[in-house]
């Protein structure tokens, strides 16, 4: 086990296998894994997970269970019983200080996974103010792009009408086009078909 320790004076000391090293000596003797991170192997692991994993939609709420129980006006114990059933049904993930609603949980409340892509063209002289207002909209993501459009929004289908209405009221927005996805595919599957 490697232990890294910083002393109170200006010299830094590091312990490795029970020996204490300081300064340059620590850099020369400690394994490179602990000095350069992320390592090549760590990046390979991340890349493999990304390539072979599946994209999941998760809504994460950084809130403690006690605070959530207060908001729901129920006891902490009652909330724990509900969480147990929700976890067992794979509808949520709970950790210290956060609650994730899983993709299955989103489906249970009627959330549709396929997002809508909204392309927005803005007058050049109004671009700054319009983008500032667009960034305040309740969308999944906002991309400022170059090309035929100025902004690309990723929007939940349930919010599309409200977003389109809000965009039409923003000064400087001259064109709005939406693309509603009907199915989603994985990049690796598409790549395999081309090969």
| SS field, number of helical segments | 8
Please state the structural category. alpha+beta
Architecture (CATH level 2) name of the largest domain: 2-Layer Sandwich
CATH-assigned fold name of the largest domain: Alpha-Beta Plaits
Uncertain segments of ≥5 residues (pLDDT<50)?
1-23, 187-195
Query: What number of structural domains do the residues give?
Result: 3
CATH superfamily membership of the largest domain: Lrp/AsnC effector binding domain/regulation of amino acid metabolism (RAM) domain
Proportion of β residues? 25-35%
In spatial order, strands of the major sheet run: 8-9-7-10
Order of helices and strands: EEEHHEHHEEHEHEEHEH
First-to-last CA distance: 46 Å
Give the CA-based shape.
globular
Q: How much is the average pLDDT?
A: 77
Bin the helical content.
25-40%
Structure summary, number of beta strands: 10
Supply Rg.
25 Å
Q: How would you characterize the largest beta sheet?
A: 4 strands, antiparallel
Structure description:
With 195 residues, the chain is of the alpha+beta class. Mean pLDDT is 77; it is low at 1-23 and 187-195. It folds into three domains: 1-51, no CATH class; 59-108, Arc Repressor Mutant, subunit A (Orthogonal Bundle); 116-180, Alpha-Beta Plaits. The chain is built from eight helices and ten strands. A hairpin with a 5-residue loop joins strand 1 and strand 2. It has a four-stranded antiparallel β-sheet. It has a three-stranded antiparallel β-sheet with strand order 1-2-3, covered by helices on one side. The chain has a three-stranded antiparallel β-sheet with strand order 4-6-5.
């Amino acid at each position: 086990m490697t232990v890294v320790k910083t002393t109170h004076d200006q010299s830094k000391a590091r312990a490795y296998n029970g020996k204490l090293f300081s300064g340059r000596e620590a850099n020369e003797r400690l394994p490179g894994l602990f000095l350069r991170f992320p390592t090549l192997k760590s990046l390979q692991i991340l890349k493999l997970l990304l390539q072979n994993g599946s994209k999941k939609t998760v809504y994460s709420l950084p809130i403690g269970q006690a605070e959530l129980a207060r908001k729901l006006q129920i006891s902490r114990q009652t909330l724990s019983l509900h969480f147990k059933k929700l976890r067992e049904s794979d509808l949520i993930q709970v950790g210290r200080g956060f609650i994730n609603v899983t993709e299955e949980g989103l489906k249970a409340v009627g959330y549709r996974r396929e997002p809508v892509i909204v392309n927005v063209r803005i007058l050049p002289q109004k671009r700054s103010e319009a983008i500032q207002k667009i960034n305040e909209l309740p969308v999944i993501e906002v991309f400022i792009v170059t090309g035929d459009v100025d902004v690309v929004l990723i929007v939940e289908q349930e919010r599309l009408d409200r977003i389109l209405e809000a965009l039409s009221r923003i000064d400087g927005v001259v064109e709005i086009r939406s693309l509603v996805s009907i199915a989603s595919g994985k990049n690796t599957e598409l790549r395999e078909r081309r090969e």
